[in-house]
Automatic annotation (TrEMBL):
GO terms for molecular function: nucleotide binding. Residues 15-128 form the Gfo/Idh/MocA-like oxidoreductase N-terminal domain. It comes from the Bacteria. Residues 145-252 form the GFO/IDH/MocA-like oxidoreductase domain. This is Oxidoreductase. It comes from Nesterenkonia jeotgali.
């Protein structure tokens, strides 16, 4: 169990943030996001194994504290918020260190490598904080918020059919980075590292999944993991979805489609959306009520983004409440991916109710006896 959380609020007191990892995701996404919230948060330190990289990023962004490890940063700065931007294999230890030091944690995807690691992190949380939350920014846009409300209120009728496609392209050279494409360091292939965002948005909209039947294969890239997967998923509300994830697709797209009794709702984008990415199409019988159809679209335009997720996280810190994209919400998405791999590797459907907190697909995402690219 963690130490008592720091008190991030007070008169004119900003939340103190530290970053672990000085790579691309830190500079492209997190540091601009933190700057956008500089009225509420200040970056007090950054850590990375590469001191030259730390110095370069710290100079560019005006960060005083420069460290070689998460523990050094935590000991020196006592941040209220620890943001983890390392490769996936380092997520668990950094998250646990942060929570034990009393810092809230915001960790890049995938959350950790296994369900067992997820539970180990969760065991360090305390009531009222600190909590560990994860970067699932696509659920935070106004399009997702509007559609989730419509599902809850049955505005569009019952959900029936859904598509969830993450069709991206990563060239062979992408996997020259030593930790990519390996079970021990990335935790999985595109289902784990790329499609996880769209999968999380699918689950955010449709809710609890109950069964998955999947295939996963290595078709072209020189990796240990899959480079393609496809799954059929049943939901507790009766809907059935097809989920396809690929890093072999030259025309890249992130596409979700939800077919309800009274409408089709689609979002098409690549790495993030705003309201212009969404489309509501009424069924013929519903199109007659134009006033109702016009009310379906979001009334505000909030893009999916790290910025919006951080805003809500800071609110949760100040209220000492569990943030979204944490706890059971975060685990649900990781359970889905574990079950996808289990189904693909065993050739059997996997029911969520049958998942166990023990065994191969709890302590790993992969049975080592299953070799991708060797089937048929």
């Amino acid at each position: 169990m963690s130490e008592a959380a720091h008190s991030p609020t007070g008169p004119d007191r900003k939340i103190r943030a530290g970053l672990i990892g000085a790579g691309g995701i830190a500079t492209i996404a997190h540091l601009p996001t933190l700057k956008a919230h500089q009225d509420r948060v200040e970056v007090v330190g950054i850590a990375d194994l590469d001191p030259d990289r730390v110095g370069q990023v710290a100079d560019e962004w005006g960060i005083a504290g420069r460290y070689r490890s998460a523990q050094e940063l935590l000991d020196a700065e006592s941040p209220d918020l620890l943001i983890i931007c390392t490769p996936p294999s380092a997520h668990k230890d950094a998250a646990i260190a942060g929570l034990r030091a009393g810092a809230w944690v915001w960790c890049e995807k995938p959350p950790v490598l296994t369900l067992a690691e997820y539970d180990a992190v969760a065991a360090e949380e305390a009531e009222g904080g600190p909590y560990a939350s994860y970067v699932y920014q696509h659920r935070f846009g106004s399009g997702a918020k509007t559609l989730k409300k419509q599902v809850a209120e049955a505005t569009l009728g019952r959900p029936l059919v859904a598509l969830c496609n993450t069709l991206w392209y990563r060239p062979h050279a992408y996997y020259d980075v030593p930790w990519r494409g390996k079970w021990a360091t990335e935790g999985g292939g595109p289902a784990m590292g790329h499609g996880i965002h769209q999968i999380d948005l699918l689950l955010e909209v449709l809710g609890e999944w109950t069964e998955i039947t999947a295939v996963a294969e290595k078709l072209d890239r020189e990796v240990e993991t899959e480079d393609f997967s496809s799954a059929i998923v049943r939901f507790a509300n009766g809907a059935i979805a097809t989920v396809v994830t690929s890093v072999l697709s030259p025309r890249e797209v992130s596409y979700l489609r939800f077919d309800f009794q009274d409408a089709t709702v689609e979002v098409e984008h690549l790495y993030g959306y705003d309201n212009s990415s969404w489309r509501w199409t009424p069924a013929p019988h519903a199109a007659e009520d134009l006033a109702t159809v016009e009310s379906w679209s979001p009334q505000e335009n909030v893009p999916s983004s790290h910025r919006q997720q951080l805003a809500e996280l800071l609110d949760s810190m100040e209220a000492k409440e569990r943030p979204r994209a944490s706890g059971e919400e975060g685990r649900r998405t990781l359970e889905f991916i574990a079950a996808l791999y289990q189904s693909a590797e065993t050739g059997k459907s996997v029911k969520r109710s049958e998942l166990r907190n023990a065994g191969t697909y709890y302590t790993a995402m992969h049975d080592e006896s299953h070799i991708y690219g060797k089937q048929g």
